Amino acid sequence: MRHDTHGAHVFLAGDHAYKLKRAVTLPFLDFSTLALRRAACENELRLNRRTAPDYYLGVVPVTRQRDGGLRLGGAGEVVDWTVHMRRFPDAALLDVVAREGRFDDGLARQLADVVAAFHGDAEVFTDRGGYDEMARVADINAGMIRGYVPQVFAASEAEAQIAAVATALSRQRPLLARRQAAGFVRHCHGDLHLRNIFLDGSGPHLFDAIEFDDRMARTDVLYDLAFLLMDLWHRELRKTANLVLGRYLARTNDLDGLAAMPLFLSLRAQIRAHVSATMAKSAGDPVALRAEAVQYLRLAGDVLRPRPARLVGVGGFSGSGKSTFAAALAPWLGPPPGAVCLRSDEIRKGLFGVTPEQALPAAAYDPAVSAEVYAELRQRAARVGAAGYAAIVDAVNDRAEDRRALAATAADAGLPFVGFWLDAAPAVLAARVRARRADASDADVAVLQAQLERGAGDVGWHRLDAAQSVPDMVGQARDILAADGPGPPGGAD
Q1: C-alpha angle with apex 141: 286 to 147, nearest 5 degrees?
Q2: In CA terms, which of 30, 204, 273, 493 is 20 to 30 Å from 442?
Q3: Hey, what CATH class is 311-484 in?
């Protein structure tokens, strides 16, 4: 069995796979000579052993035998080179998982953890990969997109998207330079979409990293992440995209770079637009690929459309469903992929250096620690707002002083503020707390009982019935936010 891409043929044989580079030259790669293809194979092996060492087995030559036949390995004349891989089932690819509706919230968090750890360990480059590399990518995209006018793209739409990226790129030039100097440019994956991630019993694995041009992979970590987020958003998995972003940021605290995320998403969508157009040239039925290319180009423009930043507070006693509600609301607020959910439970775990699902001792919930957690929530919310994104602060928020401080943070940052308080009967809250599994919250029924006895006073926020369905709660919240301004929520419209 054989699978073809614009740069390779992949041959599947039993438990093995062999990837043969195509002898092609494109604006972004050159596999025209045997030496270049061998170097690319060796680089692919080296880079992908960072994330899938058990699956990348070696580089194997294709040799010509005395009878004129070809074989893998052997002592004959080398006519080409292949990357030898251990094969995994097609159903393990995350694009198949997504298409079949198997991409649950737990997998989203697990994937974000894997990407964050990979970026954290990646080699740092402070002398490359900043504004100049983004400008180079934009120029390549522009040339490729113009090359498919008018057979795929309308000239007016193509030029509008190219101009919008140029404007965004100019605006973000100082930020890109700061991030380059600060070490956010690393040797990343470079092509991090769902078809380049697979799932096995140990979790998600990244594979097929860019090997043909190190400049394309030595890039800003958020630009690397943006390909995954854009792919999920394009597939209408908008809550999943938002969960991946939020979990990644919770693990890395890389909030200030969010200002460049719309640009990064747009560049990634442009890449998929011209890659789809290129694939359509050799497809037996190019209609679907041409339509896909147009969809990607339109997405490239849509993610740059301005949306308002804002701060939203979500409060309620343990078991009221704050985090579930916040996650469902987030994709509708601010620029794609939606608002950044700042959860007190995750912040607390981060302060103690443990994973979000790892339990903490009672001392970690002393009032002084909680005050530090709430201060960190406010500080991060202000950073998110300064980057042009919406923030949702998800915490019990049962103390009046914390609610006032959150509203003051929004006012100081010039952000509109709306608070939502989730109400439910004590028996409902207790049942939900007992049912929790593998959650960032350590609250048990005793903690809930203490909250109920202490009470929250006159909350003054919009109260929502937490016993109703989450979609109904989100619908009510969106109506309130639309009436409150500034303009309708725009993240997923």
Answers
A1: 50
A2: 204
A3: alpha beta
